[in-house]
Amino acid sequence: MNFSDYITMNVLRDFVDIALVFVIVYVVLKLLRGTRAVPTVIGLVLLGVLYWVASTQELPTLEFVLRYAVVYVGFAIIVLFQSEIRQALMYFANRLRFPILKRQRGQFGGSLYDEIVLAVTTLASEKTGALIVIERNIGLRNFIDAGVQLDARISYDLLVTIFNPSTPLHDGAVVIQNERMAAASVFLPLTKNPEVSRELGTRHRAAIGITEGTDAISIVVSEETGLITFVQGNNIIRNTDTATLRRLLLEAMEIPMVETKREPAKTMKESETEITIG
């Protein structure tokens, strides 16, 4: 290897090194944006600047305190921001997931999810509270085992019946796993995010809480207003109509949208003709 090739390899290696650092910093900042970790990161940067000042200006006592405080700060970050760290790890895991390990969904197309949309629309029109959680790549077995086991086919009638206030299973959530209703009356962890609006009740906070710790999606129907809320990750979409809910649901489950073709309504004369012929 001559000198020019050596220089080229070093330049290429340095470029890759800087590019990887840039990508990691960019992704971390993107994950931290809008979370409670932002003020903490700013505080850590200020501590770093303070330590640099103590080192350069020969302040031994302050430098000693900050140097040994770094060890405990690391443990404190893990304890205080375990949910953010878990979300970051899930983000990287989902991005690096191999196709062969990815769960197969949509064997029945969007018809099963149309049942969910229709049931949610009916419950919203009647102002009946409901919470439906759909598992994606991260398993929800711990929550399913704590609820009432169903293992039933997804159907409009069953969903509407479960959330009827007069039935014993209406409290809690229905969890859907592998395109089947795995359990009902499942109680979920509530979000502890202080930025969540106080207008949201327990059902909405549970829907947000399960999406913070997993990659599941949640659909909530408010029993007070009848509004439909779709929750995925940090995105909370309120006052969702039927068409938007169907689109968001199919996109989240990675199922191609197929417009259902309906036959045009027949006139009274055509109907009478058919009846006469029959």
Could you characterize the architecture of this molecule?
With 278 residues, the protein is of the alpha+beta class. It has 2 domains: 3-95, no CATH class; 111-252, DNA integrity scanning protein, DisA, N-terminal domain (YojJ-like (1). It has helices at residues 3-32, 37-56, 60-80, 82-95, 111-125, 141-146, 156-162, 202-213, 242-252, 268-277; strands at 130-134, 148-153, 173-177, 180-186, 217-221, 228-232, 235-237. It has a 7-stranded mixed β-sheet with strand order 2-4-3-1-5-6-7, sandwiched between helices. α2 (37-56) packs antiparallel against α3, α5 runs parallel beside α7 (156-162) and α5 (111-125) runs antiparallel to α9 (242-252). It is elongated, with a radius of gyration of 26 Å. It starts with a helix and ends with a helix.
Quick synopsis:
The protein has 278 residues and is an alpha+beta fold. It has helices at 3-32, 37-56, 60-80, 82-95, 111-125, 141-146, 156-162, 202-213, 242-252, 268-277; strands at 130-134, 148-153, 173-177, 180-186, 217-221, 228-232, 235-237. It is 53% helix and 13% strand.
Please describe the structure with a list of short key phrases separated by commas or semicolons:
single chain, 278 residues, alpha+beta, YojJ-like (1, 7-stranded mixed beta sheet, 53% helix, elongated
Based on DSSP secondary structure assignment, what is the total number of beta strands?
7
**What characterizes the major β-sheet?**
7 strands, mixed
Oligomer: single chain
Query: How does the helix and strand content classify structurally?
Result: alpha+beta
Q: What is the CATH level 1 assignment of the largest domain?
A: Alpha Beta
Distance between the termini: 89 Å
Q: Tell me the fraction of residues in β-strands, as a range.
A: 5-15%
- For the largest beta sheet, what order do the strands appear in spatially? 2-4-3-1-5-6-7
Mean pLDDT over all positions: 77
Which consecutive residue ranges, at least 5 long each, have pLDDT under 50? 104-108, 260-278
Radius of gyration: 26 Å
Q: Estimate percent helicity.
A: 40-55%
**CATH fold assignment of the largest domain:** YojJ-like (1
Total of domains = 2
What string gives the helices and strands in order?
A: HHHHHEHEHEEHEEEHH
Quickly give the CATH architecture of the largest domain: 3-Layer(aba) Sandwich
